[in-house]
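hey so i finally got around to running the thing on that chain from the lab meeting. sorry it took forever, my laptop kept dying and i had to restart like 3 times. anyway pasting the input first so we r on the same page abt which one it is
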Amino acid sequence: MNKDCNGCFGAAGDDCQKCQEVDEVTPPKLDITPELIISAHNTQMDYCETIKASGDCNKCIFTQLSHLGIIHYQDRPCTQRRITLPSLDGNTVIYIKDGQIKRVTCGRHEEAVEFYE
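ok and heres what got predicted. didnt touch it at all, straight out
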């Protein structure tokens, strides 16, 4: 029987959240997908573009982190390219399927456009 800060006495050990046993061996699995990672990257770039528009890059958290040596200057999001998927480059279509990057190169540009659409 446990007593938590609310005074709950869990006779069976399951009357409240604090009385339940916690599985400390297996941490909860985060639902982080490749699409979420790309979105986070692009969100960082949006943040940096907003700071750039204000004209004071020294206010940017990534610039401050680079000045402190926590990240490299060239690793700041403002120095990276935006990730856009799916994308069409000439005869090649790049997209994500089942968490994997897929690349399809077509024989003609028209075929690639059709595949892309």
